[in-house]
């Protein structure tokens, strides 16, 4: 696998900035080394950069069987499954996925719903597709217990993919990892509404970031103090199979986007997952909110066909005085083609299934995002 060092790289494990860890460290996130990756031009200029975010990666057993077949029966290879979105992902300066499920040992066993355990080889395929960072806080983060959580982060580390939302140690939970793009330092944070009733590991309340607006704001401010110039927040939230954002999503979005320090926003972008179906994009308090991207890698039966649809968000950031602003907002249509063979594809204008494209467009634009400048990309 050839890594493309043209883009964003990371320092220091994941980006889970737990408020508990921050408090225990004296009210702030400890400083770490400067971020590595795509450096700013030698003359100090800052340049615009793009962020692409995609939805839930949920390898159901049928998808795992496809990855086994694509690997020739030896191991698991998800690269061909993801090849249809690779051109979009790898062109981004920063690409973010949502790793919904924990990983098992290399040879399994692997399981599906309700307790997912996925092949760790998925991490290499995510990196080969072009992903730089993945959110790992979800309702399934603890499906494999502490060992599953640790295996997941170990595999992402080995593949060179940053991660936010879960942690192996208290220090990791409270230590920022900063990405670089366009000369900016970018923090990626991740939170989940819950863990399906599975309690947090004893003595490890920091293992998974639970969604609390006050905590998210505190962590975003701590990331700023640690050097982040752009803060991206992934939120695993909402009501499954519901296209409209629920009241909690609307309330939390208003609170997070309203947070300011010195008159400047604490958070630059909210990225939602969990709902299985595409949800609207909307500008709230001047900040873009993607309520739900829908699934990127999922395989549902025909009566749940909407769960195989998703959107891909692409935002362009450009320098604006002391800070950065979103100068372009786009969405692309994605779809899991159950095949056989199972493949994840895009459905841009003039290509793909027009019915899929229309369903996703209708959901994404349903709260008037077009009037705020959201456009369909290619």
Automatic annotation (TrEMBL):
Xref: CDD domains: MPP_CapA
PROSITE patterns: PROKAR_LIPOPROTEIN
Residues annotated as domain Capsule synthesis protein CapA: 50-300
Highest taxon, organism lineage: Bacteria
Xref: Pfam families: PGA_cap
Signal sequence extent: 1-21
Gene3D superfamilies reported for this sequence: 3.60.21.10
Keywords: Signal
Family per similarity comment: Belongs to the CapA family.
Protein name: CapA family protein
UniProt source species: Streptomyces meridianus
Lineage of source species: Bacteria, Bacillati, Actinomycetota, Actinomycetes, Kitasatosporales
